[in-house]
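Journal club side-thread
Mid-discussion, someone asked how the predicted structure for our own chain would compare to the paper's figures. Pasting it here so we can look after the session.
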Amino acid sequence: NTPGASRYALGAAAATGEAGVPVMQAALELERYASSMMMPYCINIMGEHGKAMIPILINNLGRGNIEITGVSVACLRSIGVSAPILETLTQCLSDENVTMRREAARALGMYGTDARATLPALSKLLNDADAEVRATAAEAIRLIDPSALPEELRT
């Protein structure tokens, strides 16, 4: 099993659309593939069927592995903005897992103005116990609507 063959197999599974959903879901559960920058490309190829990956991608945000988290955020972004993604990410902002809160905030920031409805929940994170969560929430708010950031945090 060579890395190139694995990437080819992922691309082939993604190209089958709905038929590739189980293969892609299983791959996202494995660290080797969940951290592969090939994943956003594959999920993009799947089109509408890529939305079936949302629950696993959201779960991967809290796994504590920065590579998996980064790939998951990129995958969510490749799926595009949708109410279910924004709602789920907003719910993740109140998760007890620090990594989940931080990465959900980061992901919401990547949606820019499309995530405007999440500003109240993001604003609550400005008082989070974790400094990284606070900083990430501030950056997300800045990306979504800089005028929503409290005056003392504007630079």
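Post-session note: The chain has a mean pLDDT of 88.
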